[in-house]
Task: inverse folding
């Protein structure tokens, strides 16, 4: 049963320190292939909206949330995720399915009562007409009672409850953006992100690729970049012959935009270094822009991620890329080489890609930001030592926070006057389009 499987994955995610992707893959190894997309959609929706769904339970459950047995709580959250976000679902049928998978009679009785109580408090709404500042709307339904805090009087609490993020993150967002912009960003962050296909122009022309992909059943839409297409309808991608032959790479639009280097004045046969390389998307795109002319080095500290770079390089045919398994800071201390372009796509809070990684919001802690900014400074400083005169240092993240973006660059420039900031851009998440990203390009004088 889809609901039962999704609830078990949700439960395992809650009790472990693993990320959702890992828990999902581990659990669904023995599931039928036809069921996996449905299970994935449901459990990812439940994790995305966990905060809002827990708020619903706090309002209508006679038992405090923290007192609920974890398995039971997981079933309730997943059941709510199934019928509150799909107007075509019949709540009574979902409730029956949820009750069926509970073994204890007392818990069956409780689950049936609380879920039916909730279903009696909702009316369908036209989602397109939904007020984003509403205190009683969630998914495809409007509650008869107010569920969320007043957005004017308690904006941080409202953001946390209505858009399902921890309170410290809602306060962070409000310190960076006004309430309207924060709501806009979080709306985009809670909707399934589309997939984008970056055509491998070293193997096939964009026009030819579009024709072949369309003929193979891909429903594509043009983007701001002529060699990147948006996949309008999800389908099995990695099983296709065109993917296996390396004719395209799956990469978010903002990540491609943050890797554009065609406007930089690089020498012929440049030395290119990616200091935080896995899975290799940005470096392989730079390789394609330079038509493979240059010397390319990928440094990756995590040995478990090396195979991702190796597989992508082999599939795309970018075999000139040299892979080094090393801590980048140690690599920078040892190497005597200088590079014309050093790319640092640094570890970050990932707050710009919540639509792709909904679980990040529940794994991130306030103290993580301090350790991340320290690491980002260290990586920038290490990378700066490897840039040749008139070479470029590119710093990129997939977060939206000034503390990880603009403030890191200001600190770096203060300590490294030989560098000049020549470009800086922040991409904000957009509904059913690009995810969030940041890039700063420096040139060594």
Result:
């Amino acid at each position: 049963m889809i609901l039962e499987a999704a609830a078990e994955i949700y439960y395992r995610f809650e009790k472990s320190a693993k990320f959702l992707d890992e828990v999902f893959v581990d659990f669904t190894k023995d599931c039928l292939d036809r069921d996996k997309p449905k299970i994935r959609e449901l459990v990812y929706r439940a994790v995305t909206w966990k905060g809002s769904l827990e708020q619903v339970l706090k309002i209508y459950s006679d038992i405090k949330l923290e007192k609920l047995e974890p398995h039971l709580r997981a079933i309730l959250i997943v059941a709510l995720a199934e019928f509150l976000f799909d107007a075509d679902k019949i709540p009574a049928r979902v409730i029956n399915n949820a009750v069926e998978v509970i073994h204890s009679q007392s818990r069956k009785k409780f689950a049936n009562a609380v879920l039916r109580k909730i279903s009696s408090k909702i009316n369908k709404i036209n989602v397109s007409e939904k007020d984003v500042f509403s205190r009683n709307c969630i998914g495809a339904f409007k509650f008869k009672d107010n569920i969320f805090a007043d957005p004017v009087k308690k904006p941080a609490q409202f953001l946390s409850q209505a858009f399902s993020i921890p309170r410290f993150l809602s306060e962070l967002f409000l310190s960076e953006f006004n309430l309207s912009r924060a709501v806009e960003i979080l709306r985009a962050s809670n909707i399934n992100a589309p997939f984008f296909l970056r055509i491998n122009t070293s193997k096939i022309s964009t026009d030819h690729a579009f024709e072949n992909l369309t003929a193979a059943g891909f429903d594509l839409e043009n983007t701001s970049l002529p060699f990147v297409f948006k996949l309008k309808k999800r389908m099995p991608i990695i099983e296709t012959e065109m993917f296996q032959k390396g004719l395209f790479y799956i990469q978010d639009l903002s990540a491609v935009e943050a890797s554009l280097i065609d406007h930089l004045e690089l020498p012929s046969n440049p030395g290119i270094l990616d200091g935080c390389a896995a899975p290799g998307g940005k470096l392989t795109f730079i390789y394609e822009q330079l038509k493979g002319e240059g010397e390319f080095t990928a440094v990756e500290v995590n040995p478990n991620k090396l195979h991702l770079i190796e597989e992508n390089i082999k599939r795309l045919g970018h075999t000139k890329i040299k892979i080094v398994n090393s801590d980048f800071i140690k690599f920078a201390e040892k190497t005597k080489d200088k590079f014309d372009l050093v790319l640092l796509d640094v570890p970050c809070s990932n707050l710009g890609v919540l639509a792709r990684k909904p679980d990040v919001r529940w794994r991130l802690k306030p103290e993580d930001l301090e350790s991340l900014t320290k690491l980002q400074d260290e990586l920038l400083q290490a990378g700066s030592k490897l840039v040749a005169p008139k070479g470029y240092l590119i710093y990129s993240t997939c977060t939206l926070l000034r503390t990880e973006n603009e403030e890191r660059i200001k600190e770096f420039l203060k300590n490294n006057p030989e560098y000049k900031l020549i470009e800086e851009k922040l991409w904000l998440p957009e509904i059913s389009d690009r995810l969030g990203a940041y890039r700063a390009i420096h040139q060594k004088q």
Notes: The domain at 258-444 is CATH 3.40.50.150 (Rossmann fold). The first strand starts at residue 122 and ends at 124. The two ends are 62 Å apart (CA to CA). The mean pLDDT is 95.
